[in-house]
Amino acid sequence: MSKLRISSKKRAKIKMALEGPSGSGKTYSALLLAYGITQDWSKIAVIDSENCSADLYAGLGGYYVLPLEEYSPEQYIEAINECETAGMEVIIIDSISQSWDYLLDYHASLLGNSFTNWAKVTPRQNAMMQRILSCNAHVICTMRTKQDYVLNDKNGRQIPEKVGLKACMRDGVEYEFTLVLDIDITHKVKASKDRTGLFMGLPEFIITPKAGAYILKWCQSETSNPNTNIYSQTI
Known about the structure:
Elements (H helix, E strand, L loop, with lengths): L14 E6 L5 H13 L5 E5 L15 E4 L5 H13 L4 E5 L2 H13 L12 H13 L3 E17 L2 E11 L11 E5 L4 E7 L10 E2 L2 H12 L15
Parallel strand pairs: 1-5, 1-7, 2-3, 2-4, 4-5
Antiparallel strand pairs: 5-6, 7-8, 8-9
């Protein structure tokens, strides 16, 4: 039987990432977004791999925190399952960079051919990302970034030049998310990927719960207009 059907966005669950350097406010911003989405702190859970940094903002409201004791992809999957079973509407994973660090260390410990050993690593990373994407809750992942450099030839010398911030995660992971917001050390945000059409092309802004409310509105609409953003709104 044919599975051909008319396209329909239906009621989506946002899968988004906040990426920025240490101290840029990723955790705090993720909590504000989460509250804007659900309007209920008790429906928000933070999967915490950042030494209980999520507890620093307990004054915001009574959200849940699930600390991780190790950072294997399997532990992240188990934590997502627990939060989903508990009925959380928004799950913040703070951060997924530790899972990649864990896998890099695991890969380095393997004997034999380094290239072929990736076959033992990649499926574990893919399983975690697939669990994030299939989660029956809104998911906000944070990722650390670091300054990236390239070598350019100048007058016969190789000179390192900054080319921007690179996420501490597997290359191309941004493609997995519907929305990716880059946050700088001054807490200002700009979209680097936006399939919602809400934020792309906007000047830098500071995240407030209103941004989360706009994301929820997009998720609940049956259609989406990629040319409609919230530039004229107060975020």
